[in-house]
């Protein structure tokens, strides 16, 4: 399986050339004051387009919608919990709130040795870095 | 006047450009055809269509009408020049996306080779989606073949029943004119033209989510994680560097789910995954999702 994947990858590189290979934003440095967490969802929910977890502008269900949460969440560290919500950082930098029971510490189901940390990207957004 | 099917013209009967066939030649060809028809047939041989459907090419002019040339294959509405850009080309520096193009592609030719291909192109356009993006999706998912899959996954675009239903409803809400073209219920999942509407809507939502995350002009390759791994995982993969591990970016997926997508946990990098997908999609991979 791995051999096939690598062979296909090399083939793809030859066929498509490097311009097709996307280039992510460079990591500038760590983002202190936040911890890497992830959405609490089952494997089936993860690929279900109808399963969406939203950010709120304030720690209340009646607060305005502040965007869609992705799999990884930058939660303020130490955790700031209010009314069942925890404070988090939207990638653009805004403080948002997410239901506390919807986030768990980051852990990869398929690769438990991987660790995650919050970082600042070259474009000024926050992001995540993965390491062992 | 309705075109009449004409017998194939043997190569030896080729006419010089601009010349007209002589009646004597037609008589001789007819006699030859009759003679050939006397040879016993050995039954029909099934032929799999590979490429655009063959069209009638009349070479005998209709008396009183000007000569008409009909190009072979389904007309491709997009230019073949892949350098023609539909956007500003600037993209977003913070992601993999930006600067995609809208043009013809190998994938589009493959989809147009299907009986439902032209309808799928129209459906994509009706929702503002680049037909090449839709075509690349069916190429990757099924080779544009209407096949069943695991569980509720089915059709040329290999959507789950729940996703198909949600996207069909969203598509009709956005463009009510599409309602008349839909095979109702889950039967539509196995009708490629109907499923193309749901798949187009899914691609549209993928592009919109990526745009909200700062990827101004998402490419087909950018949108692939959304289609493959769900909305929650889409942005992280689209924005990741090539050297990151897919298993790190998809923490909620099991090893079996990753294997089903050709990913080995702890080994397959984003760059390898992108290269594999790109090689399957061909020239459509770096085109814009949106028209």
For the record, the CATH class of the domain at 106-286 in chain B is Mainly Alpha
Give the total of beta strands of chain A: 11
Instruction: Quickly give the CATH architecture of the domain at 106-286 in chain B.
Output: Orthogonal Bundle
Rounded to an integer, what's the Rg of chain B over CA atoms?
A: 23 Å
Number of helices of chain A: 2
Protein model, in words:
- The complex is a heterodimer of chains A (132) and B (291).
- Chain A is mostly beta strands.
- In chain A, 14% of the residues lie in helices and 38% in strands.
- In chain A, a hairpin with a 4-residue loop joins strand 10 and strand 11.
- The longest helix of chain A has 15 residues, at 2-16.
- Chain B is an all-alpha fold and 291 residues long.
- Chain B is built from 11 helices and no strands.
- The longest helix of chain B is centred in the last third of the chain and has 21 residues, at 192-212.
- Chain B starts with 22 loop residues before the first helix and ends in a 10-residue tail after the last helix.
- At the A-B interface, helix 1, helix 2 and strand 11 of A face helix 5, helix 6, helix 7, helix 8 and helix 9 of B.
């Amino acid at each position: 399986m791995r051999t096939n994947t690598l062979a296909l990858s090399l083939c793809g590189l030859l066929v498509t050339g490097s311009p097709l290979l996307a280039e992510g934003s460079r990591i500038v440095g760590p983002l202190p004051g936040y911890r890497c967490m992830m959405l609490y969802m089952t494997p089936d929910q993860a690929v279900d387009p109808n399963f969406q977890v939203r950010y709120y502008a304030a720690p209340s269900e009646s607060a305005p919608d502040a965007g869609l949460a992705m799999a990884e969440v930058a939660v303020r560290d130490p955790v700031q919990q209010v009314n069942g919500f925890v404070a988090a950082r939207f990638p653009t930098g805004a403080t948002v709130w997410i239901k506390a029971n919807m986030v768990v510490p980051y852990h990869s189901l398929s690769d438990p040795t991987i660790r995650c940390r919050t970082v600042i990207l070259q474009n000024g957004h926050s992001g995540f870095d993965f390491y062992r | 006047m309705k075109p009449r099917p004409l017998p194939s013209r043997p190569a030896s009967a080729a006419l010089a450009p601009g010349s007209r066939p002589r009646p004597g030649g037609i008589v001789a060809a007819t006699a030859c055809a009759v003679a050939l028809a006397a040879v016993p047939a050995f039954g029909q041989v099934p032929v799999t269509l590979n490429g655009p459907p063959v069209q009638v090419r009349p070479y005998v002019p209709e008396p009183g009408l000007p000569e008409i040339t009909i190009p072979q294959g389904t007309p491709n509405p997009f230019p073949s020049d892949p350098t023609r850009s539909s956007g500003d080309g600037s993209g977003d520096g913070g992601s993999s996306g930006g600067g995609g193009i809208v043009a013809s592609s190998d994938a589009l030719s493959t989809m147009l080779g299907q009986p439902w291909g032209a309808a799928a192109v129209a459906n994509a356009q009706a929702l503002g989606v680049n037909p090449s993006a839709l075509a690349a999706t069916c190429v990757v998912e099924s080779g544009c073949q209407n096949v069943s899959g695991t569980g509720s996954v089915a059709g040329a675009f290999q959507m789950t029943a729940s996703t198909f239903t949600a996207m069909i409803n969203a598509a009709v809400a956005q463009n009510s004119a599409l309602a008349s073209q839909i095979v109702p219920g889950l039967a539509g999942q196995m009708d490629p033209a109907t499923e193309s509407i749901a798949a187009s809507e899914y691609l549209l939502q993928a592009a919109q989510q990526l745009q909200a995350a700062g990827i101004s002009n998402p490419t087909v390759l950018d949108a692939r994680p959304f289609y493959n791994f769900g909305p929650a995982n889409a942005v992280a993969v689209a924005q990741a560097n090539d050297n990151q591990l897919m298993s790190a970016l998809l923490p909620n997926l099991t090893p079996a789910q990753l294997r089903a997508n050709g990913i080995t946990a702890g080994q397959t990098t984003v760059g390898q995954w992108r290269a594999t997908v790109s090689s399957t999609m061909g020239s459509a991979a770096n085109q814009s999702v949106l028209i």
